[in-house]
Automatic annotation (TrEMBL), chains A, B:
Keywords: DNA-binding, Transcription, Transcription regulation. Residues 7-31 have a biased composition (Low complexity). This is TetR/AcrR family transcriptional regulator. Residues 62-81 bind DNA. It comes from Actinacidiphila polyblastidii. It comes from the Bacteria. The lineage of its organism: Bacteria, Bacillati, Actinomycetota, Actinomycetes, Kitasatosporales. SUPFAM superfamilies: Homeodomain-like. Residues 39-99 form the HTH tetR-type domain. Residues 1-35 are annotated as: Disordered.
Length: 225, 225
DNA sequence: GAACATACATACCGAAGGTATGTGACTGTC
DNA sequence: GACAGTCACATACCTTCGGTATGTATGTTC
């Protein structure tokens, strides 16, 4: 327990630019364990990257700007991430995780397996109306990380959809069929719907119309029983 | 008809790098009218850009490489296009035009308005299986030119879908509803399906399954009459 | 406490998008 | 049919940005 105070709150000798100290943590920094420091830096970088990627888009957002906002230098960035694509990939994975949590919560609230898929879809649609979410998950992700990586970077809503549909089929809530095609149609349809709704003259009304149409579609596919 | 020969086939004084002479045209160049020269240069640039954008993606493809392939310098490129985005936008617009022609042809072959939409969708799906088409229209376009520009850059398949659905509604082939929501679901569903099919273990089988599922969906929405 | 590993900062490089400017070919005009 | 003006480029250059190599203070291990 010797002398723990190290004076300046900056992480190292030179001048730590800014912003990092504004995080929730208490004042001192040098006494923490490496893992905590590392995690905090990654957190700062991801937060800064998310903000800039969302605001300016993947190509327009520069790593220098990300580092400045995170209060770190490029040395730190490249210590934790292999490059710009990987940084974006990490941001994307987080975003999908957040979306998936929301969708899963809505899904689990329903007992009927087909209705549960509907509610999950509804939750995904509503969550995807946020322009920042759209920019990251719908616009830039395909071009930046590719289609395969989008599905392999941890949890993703497409797999959620697939599993929901598969369960609805197993339970007999919809007619037997391979689950993949309907997954593509539903997931792609919801994604495109989100983009259209967000840009509609009256997004509120557009959302209601979309949900009504989606309801018709779900009813049409449900087995009468 | 004075002396028309100008010696070298190169367009101007200095050394025209390459490739441009390989186009279909005959040998001399200087005698043509400006408009023809200009059109030919634009054509070369678009062809080179399409090839590189399709092969390497929007960000990875460099304008220097495009110019080299087109046998032109950046001066020519920036004389005809405002920048990289606009060049890509022009390539994208052409691609959409090509797709739209194919889709329209399939659409017009059917009399029943709802079946015509199905055949148009089928044509769009099959045409979108080409990796080069996918890379340009599905992966890079949203991030590079944005959603609004994708719909304002000339003909596009989404509007075709919208009009087909609107006609099917007017003719009573499907139940009355606002056409926009179903358009988003169908167009987005087909786009996502194309990406999934192209990456499936057995694309042939995946395509058949997708079309079968699409058929079920179309039948479910059709009015019995 | 000495050797080692971690977590950065600093400085630099090359590539690529974009721009400013020059020049020869073309075109309308008198 | 010269001549002025415009068009269609080429050349050279600037700036930004992604990426890398290296130095160094901090933390960890034995």
């Amino acid at each position: 327990m010797a002398a723990a105070r190290t004076g300046s709150g900056s992480r190292q000798g030179a001048a730590g630019p800014a912003a990092a100290a504004a995080r929730g943590g208490v004042a001192p920094v040098a006494g923490r364990r490496q893992r905590e420091r590392s995690d905090a830096t990654v957190e700062d970088l991801l937060a800064a990257a998310r903000a800039l990627f969302a605001a300016e888009g993947y190509t327009a957002a520069s790593l220098d700007a990300v580092c400045e906002r995170a209060g770190v230098t490029k040395g730190a960035l490249y210590h934790h991430f292999a490059g710009k694509r990987q940084l974006f990939g990490a941001v994307y994975a987080r975003e999908q995780q957040r979306l998936a949590d929301t969708v899963t919560a809505a899904y689990l609230r329903e007992d009927d397996p087909w209705e549960a898929v509907f509610q999950g879809g509804r939750a995904y649609l509503e969550a995807s109306l946020d322009p920042e979410v759209q920019r990251i998950t719908l616009f830039d992700a395909p071009g930046a990380v590719g289609w395969e990586a989008m599905r392999e970077l941890g949890v993703n809503c497409r797999d959620l959809t697939l599993r929901g549909i598969a369960r609805a089929i197993r339970r007999g809530a919809i007619a037997p069929r391979p689950a993949e095609p309907l997954t593509s149609i539903l997931y792609g349809g919801l994604s495109e719907s989100a983009m259209a709704i967000a840009r509609a003259d009256d997004p509120r009304e557009a959302l209601q119309e979309a949900l009504a149409d989606l309801r018709v579609l779900f009813d049409a596919l449900a087995t009468g029983a």
